[in-house]
Design a protein that fits this description.
By secondary structure, this protein is mainly beta. Helix content is 4%, strand content 44%.
Length: 354
């Protein structure tokens, strides 16, 4: 159960800033050591369904099982290391335990909650019995909304929805709307309504909901009744990003400049996770995408939740963050084959160092 979504990797590149521990982080100093260290690398066998998958989202239950929405097979997979066995949950359709291209998901007390790319319904299923639902379907305006379970509440967020945040009680089989979050600051409206713009969502240990819009680099806080509390404006990063020669050659100077400008502008926000610091506090990881680049290039910003200061920005290639649990960050490493296809070859687990 991702109460606060403690929801990876041979190359972590980017802008390294001076870090002195959560709550006592020093001034920015380019070139100083990595913000996370490799804790485990788990190879994915070629015989596994996961090897051929495209994971959109992942949740981890209390027993260490992984639940993944797979865009390749358009199924929900259940597995655990060493990934030799995978179970397929549910199937296509609109009935109990069925879906059209599952996207964001979360797991709680034996039940899975998930959104769809092909439907605006938020659905649930009993993991053991595959089709038994915990709650009736919930209809929201946009497809592919973030879903997250916190105790007996279901939090739904998508920047396309108006309002973007909705909180439901799932104590009974009929979900009860607790509240809808309405921000007071400027909204970045999108013309297309049924699109998969997402932004990011997570919930802290003490029940504070944090969201980030798809095209506005500021984090908004709500209580569990969806009442707007505050906005944390993210401080501008340095206007340069020293890339490693091992990954992107200096001969690509024009592309380098384009990517530097894109990182500074935060062109498309795709995810937000809270990560635990060594002193028990929490920082934020925000994922943004670069325009006009390969889909396997991701940018991750580590942000001080107390001040909004960017501690470090990492440009990762062939690594995608899919879940955070405590101080562990779970990445999938992908590799392109000779025929142009992509496969998942390993799960990289990194430890947050602050």
């Amino acid at each position: 159960m991702r109460h606060y979504r403690y929801s990876l990797g041979l190359m972590v590149i980017g802008l390294f800033l001076s870090l002195m521990g959560c709550g006592q982080k020093g001034e920015s100093t380019p070139g100083q050591g990595p913000i996370m260290s490799l804790a485990d690398s788990i190879p994915i066998p070629e015989s596994s369904i996961l090897y051929h998958s495209t994971v959109l989202d992942m949740a981890i239950d209390d027993s260490g099982h992984f639940y993944m929405s797979d865009n390749t097979t358009r199924r929900i997979l259940q597995t655990e290391p060493p990934f030799t066995r995978c179970w397929v949950l549910g199937g296509p359709g609109l009935g109990p335990g069925e879906y059209f291209t599952p996207w964001f998901l979360d797991v709680s007390e034996g039940y899975l909650f998930y959104s769809n790319l092909g439907s605006s319904l938020i659905k649930s299923m009993n993991i053991k019995h595959n089709t038994t639902t915990k709650t009736q379907d919930i209809s929201v305006p946009a497809v592919a909304s973030h879903v997250l379970v916190y105790q007996d509440t279901l939090v739904i967020y998508n920047d396309v929805n108006i309002p973007p945040l909705r909180v439901y009680s799932i104590h009974t089989s009929t979900p009860q709307l607790i509240g809808k979050g309405v921000r007071t600051e400027q909204r970045y409206e999108l013309a297309a309504r049924r699109v998969a713009a997402s932004g990011g969502l997570d919930v802290s240990r003490d029940g504070i909901i944090y969201t980030i819009p798809v095209s506005h680099f500021a984090i908004h806080a709500y209580n569990m009744q969806a009442k707007f509390l505050s906005t944390l404006d993210i401080q501008d990063p340095p206007h340069y990003v020293p890339f490693s020669n091992d990954l992107y050659k200096q001969s690509q100077s024009e592309k380098m400049q384009e990517w530097q400008e894109a990182i500074v502008s935060f062109s498309h926000i795709y995810g937000l996770w809270l990560v635990q610091c060594q002193d028990g506090s929490q920082d934020v990881v925000v994922e943004s995408h670069l325009p006009n680049t390969e889909s396997n290039v991701h940018v991750y910003h580590f942000i001080d939740l107390a001040t909004g200061r960017i501690l470090q920005t990492n440009l990762l290639r062939n690594l995608a963050l899919k879940a955070v649990q405590g101080s562990n960050l779970y990445f999938f490493q992908s590799r392109q084959q000779k025929d142009g296809s992509w496969n998942l070859v390993a799960m990289k687990v990194y430890q947050y160092n602050l």
